[in-house]
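Milestone M4 deliverable, item 7.
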Amino acid sequence: MIEDEPVRQESISVGRVDILAIPSVRKQIWVLAWPVLLNSLLFNMVEIIDTVMVGRLGPQAVAAVGLGGHVFSVVMVLLFAIAAGTIALVARSVGSNDKETAQQVLKQSMILAIIFSVVTMVPGIYFARDILALFRLEPEVTELGTPYVQIIMAAVIFLSVGIIFASGLQGAGDTRTPLYISIVINILNVGANYVLIFGKLGFPRLGVTGAAIGTAGSLGMGIVIFVFLFMSKRLILSMPVLPLKVDWDLIRRILRVGFPVALSQLLLQVGFLIYLRIMAIFGAKPVAAYVIGVRILTLAFIPGMGFAAAASTLVGQNLGAGFPEKAKESAREACRLAILFMSLLGTVFFLAARPIGYLIIQDIEVVALTAIFIRILAVAQPMMAIDFTLGGALRGAGDTKWPLYAISVGFYLFRLPLAYFFAGVINLPILWAWMTLLVDYAVRNIIIISRFRSEKWKEIKV
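Output delivered:
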């Protein structure tokens, strides 16, 4: 406990747990983090299972799904702004016992998410083939990836609404409800993908297209559940649907906090596409190895995601409640826990890299490349843990510009130029292009740690 902070006179009821009333900072973190950890584990296990199923269709199918996923992530960058602003403002409002404002933030964020979905859906569907063709991979990859992107873009409204619902609940401290809904979504996703990819139970064999349909359908079912729970007022926050009045001042506050997050995500996702384009110099197999490696190592990223979510919520709520030193301690403890768990998982994946590759795909060359990439990512886990948690803490405080600066410098001034130089100029093996991500994260850590230690984030107004 921080002894020199004011005594909190009024507790905050967060779901079934009064988060800030829990005396132990570590326990506060665990209460918030474990549902996010389990949710992320389920989600990433589903992605891995999907990759295993798609992997049975060959490297071109894996590359098509991987490219399609990255294209979709670029389109979703504005949603990250809305989600980040929602978490920060809801956390501050709940921390200061202003539940009415928290609910209005959620309502305005939902209006923004629906507008975003409508604006991005049509061009995403129409230009899907042209975007994939930019990577100049085998024509088969473009042919497989085009319907995948089109179907996923048609479901963008489901994902948008679901992420905003989950962000509002996270800011309020309820990380369990999104977990329960995610369990339903993931079960539906695996079942539908298996049936549609391979043509089971009398359905046609749809391959990559079946994976897209299964994912879109499961996301839609998740929204049905979310809407029912919110409308029934069974959650910590409720959201009256009518009247649909736009509060421009609140929207500006949401976007002011979230815009740097959107820009950082845009730079990140565009950077990933450029990075993939550099790898495409070597052909579809290195791209497939990269996709498989990232899918596998997302299991090691899970602690970072969970502890980052806890840090973001606790920093926001403690600042809203007037406890800046507890906000700082929450972020530091979350970072320590993330480093420990991600390093342990990274060690496991480093040692088991090649057998893991064989679980996904049987192509010997792709397996060898996958093992190399997995080991590089495994070495990066401690640096990724710092980037996740301290970046999440800064975002929870509303200090969203510095994570943007870190990504801009690390990715665009170091990773991409070095990768292109190694692969496109002096023609070194793909290993050298992949090694540049270690430099990227080292630079990001320097920037993020420096900003956190300055403690200027405590003074940010949202």
